[in-house]
Amino acid sequence: MYHKKSNSDLVGEAIIAAAGAxxxxxxxxxxxxxxxxxxxxxxxxxxxxxxxxxxx
Length: 56
Known about the structure:
- With about 55 residues, the protein is mostly helical.
- It has helices spanning about 5-30, 35-55.
- The longest helix is centred in the N-terminal third of the chain and has 24 residues, at about 5-30.
- The model has no long low-confidence stretch (mean pLDDT about 85).
């Protein structure tokens, strides 16, 4: 009845979450934000999205 998520699902989730977060971060970097801070924000947002998706 319940579908256990595999590791391949995790990779797909990570790519989609990072791409979504990267859109906003790219805009912020283009407006003068540090690229290192942008990468950190993208990584945090992707990890948060995966965790939330796995919990719910």
